[in-house]
Amino acid sequence: MDYMQKVSEMLAEKFDEIPLANVVTFGCAQNENDSEKIRGLLYKLGYSMTDSLEKSDIVIYNTCAIRENAELKIFGNIGKLKALKAANPYMIVAVCGCMVMQPHIVDKIKKSYPFVDIVFGVNALELLPQLIYSCYSENKKQILSPQERTQIVENTPMLRSAKPKASISIMFGCDNFCSYCIVPYVRGRERSRKPENILREFRQLVAEGYKDITLLGQNVNSYGKNLEEKVDFADLLALLCTVPGDYVIHFMSSHPKDINKKVIDTIRDNPKISRQIHLPVQSGNDRILKLMNRRYTIRQYLDIIDYAKQQIPGVTFSSDIIVGFPGETFEEYLDTEELVKKVRFTQLFTYIYSKRNGTKAAEMEDNISHEEKAKWLNRLIKIQQDIVFEHLDSYTGKTVKALVEEKHGDMYTARLENTFLAKFASDTDFSGEFVNLKITGKRGTALTAELIK
Ligand code: 5AD
Ligand code: SF4
Q1: Which of 21, 176, 186, 276 has a Cα-to-Cα distance from 132 of 20 to 30 A?
Q2: For position 186, what pLDDT does the model report?
């Protein structure tokens, strides 16, 4: 708070007009949520937000480390700021997030991108006012080296993106150490927020009119493990559903080893929880799952899916899949195809394995070429496309509830619970409201629909 005041005064002195800030997010929903906090802090300091890099007085890149191509893209973007910074000497360039939790990346920024003024890692957001203050007052770069910070800071101001969608971080970090994944190294140990703090934030969002609320964590099913109070993810879901209002709750990501019948039963008993479950499987082959340190078998994965299908009418699943894990053979990859055909996900996020230094998988032998892996990926994408088309066709004639997102001319788009988009015409603007739609067919990857008056 001390620095907030000081920076506000400093900015008022330095700039004739309201200074502009641009926070650019790379990566996942957790990073988006962090960016909303960064924007909240900047707003309190006196900045207005802009999408323009040229007009920005501070640019903050909130970075992602999950795959190598994410990092390469981000370095490309940072490089482009050099000329802009030369044109606006007051401009601050800051880099934060997962990528700069890796010492070799911070070294590279220091060496190859000397125009970067501020670097701060994950869980250090609240240091931003202090870093801006020191950067201007000492006229000196503020490059924090990666440091695990385990505290949970409540009540950071947030500048959220537009209604009706919002997200709430219910926990931070990850203890699973899947062998391919950098997240436990950059986001640190798993810790959960207290249920009463989550409930307060949730209540406020509902009161403000948010209608599509996503609970975020790397593995939401292990929520509560570090809390003194005996509370698990199913308890948290049930608690939030006691808040009156018209909304839908989503959550991600779930881990198949931790999702259990209690969570499924809680979804069944609470219509406010989305009937689409994101359950990343990663591979359809047990040997690869073991090498990935996922700690479930395909039999166990299918059992929980079967249980959910029995208990929750109309439940659908989405998933993440990695192809080309070190040592994976074509035959083992084919097991993934078989699984995808069996479960018939409504949405699939597919990735080619990317080597992340410091992880267990980075030490495993990997002798399949990138070209070969790309072929497998394309096969999988094609199979999934056909499954999505079949899902879309199965909606024709059905009546569904959907949340209206955007207006394009006289057409609106609305999102079904399972994330399919439906397009419909309406004379009345129902943006941000739930509507009932009758599905008439499909166009491309979206559904066409009529509004039910
Ligand atoms: N290479 C490719 N994909 C990865 N993911 C995580 N780490 C890697 C990696 N090293 C994918 C997983 C995860 C999703 C968020 O990103 O599928 O579920
Ligand atoms: Fe990475 Fe596995 Fe943790 Fe997900 S659960 S963040 S894939 S280590």
Answers
A1: 186
A2: 95
Pocket test for ligand 2, best of 101, 178, 259, 294 (most atoms within 8 A of CB): 178
From 67, 218, 281, mutation site for ligand 2 pocket: most ligand atoms within 8 A of C-beta: 218
Interval 155-184: pLDDT, tens: 999 999 888 999 999 999 999 999 999 999
Q: Where are the domains of the chain?
A: 2-143, 162-274, 308-394, 399-452
162-274: CATH topology is Transcription Regulator spoIIAA (3.30.750)
Domain range 399-452, CATH class? mainly beta
Please tell me if the CB atom of residue 353 comes closer than 6 angstroms to any atom of ligand 1: yes
Q: Do domains 162-274 and 308-394 have the same CATH topology?
A: yes
Supply the residue whose CA is at minimum distance from atom 17 of ligand 1: 320
Task: Look up the CATH number of domain 308-394.
Answer: 3.30.750.200
Q: Is the model's pLDDT at 149 over the cut of 90?
A: no
Taking 90 as the threshold, does the pLDDT of residue 379 lie above it?
Answer: yes
* Ligand closest in space to the Cα of 219: 2
Separation CA 268–CA 273 (nearest Å): 8
Structure tokens at 188: 């640190």
Q: For residue range 248-300, list pLDDT tens digits in order.
A: 999 999 999 999 999 999 999 999 999 999 999 999 999 999 999 999 999 99
Q: Under a CB-based contact definition with an 8 Å cutoff, are residues 109 and 75 in contact? A: no
Question: For 63-117, how does the pLDDT look when each residue is reduced to its tens digit (9 = 90+)?
Answer: 999 999 999 999 999 999 999 999 988 899 999 999 999 999 999 999 999 999 9
